[in-house]
Input
Amino acid sequence: MFKDNLNQRQLNILKFIQKKEKVSNIDIRNYLRDKGIQVSRITVVRDINTLLDKNLVKKYGKGRSVWYEEKERSEFLKYIDIDKYFKKGPDERKIAFKNFNFDVFKRLDNVFNEKEKKELIDLNNQYKRQVKKLSSTLLQKELERLTIDLSWKSSQIEGNTYSLIDTEALIKENKKAPGHSQEEATMILNHKKALDYILNNKDYFKKLNFQKIREIHKILLKNLGVKSRIREHGVGITGTKYKPLDNKFQIKEALEKLVKLINNKDNPLAKSLIVGLFISYIQPFEDGNKRTSRMLTNALLLAYNFCPLSFRSVDTAEYKKAIIVFYEQNNFRFFKELFKEQFRFAVNNYFL
Output
């Protein structure tokens, strides 16, 4: 479950603020009481503080004159009750964008707010201090550990059934797990090769282009029967009615816009998050798009000396939900929360 999730009472308060636009603590308590929810003033204050911490509401005034408004009015960052959203199937959900939306490129000016930027930069400074203390041997061991975790988890997201222990044996000893296909082993080993390529060519990824995207895809899909060229036909995506572009010229146009957007961004974290989301959204290749997006996320992080992600602790279902919410609503709040969680996890679990 997303750490960003609110409990039902907090959801009620947020919806009330969204509806009324300007409310006080007393207004909130009266609203909850009218709904049959008896709470103390302290509980309301706690709930409001939660909404403030999550950047969902803004506080104005002082003392008895305090009042609250919804902070994020952009549809692309608004809070959605993700559990409720996915209780309905793809045919029942009210989907805002059933097809690729080129206008979404205009909505990515402020991916992270100042508070988020500070937290992530502070975390990355912690990562740099940790790395600085490691000997070259220990650093190599930590990179190997992260490589194993990433190769396992990224493959698992794609349906690979190797365990983490079997993935370690495959990567370190070239020992294939019994009862598993050659395709599964190849998928995992390709992840290792792709990350090795990135680690050996960090500066190369400071500026992105289609050729570099294609190179990563080619390594990841080698010997898996998928060509590394722009898709020429339509594809369907399990779990959603969203249809990606089906015209190779439009796909190429979308990729050009994406590359330009990323290269013009100053913040490496924004670059990494956007590429991690948009390669999946554009679906430029017949297969392997999400794998490519996760690896490119790390290519951009490492290019700018930021901590790479293993995605080890990510819940596969929540990851897919975050992507589908973006497909259908162009809302990237939940993918951003997932990205931040994985960045925190990486800094606090590797290179120590």
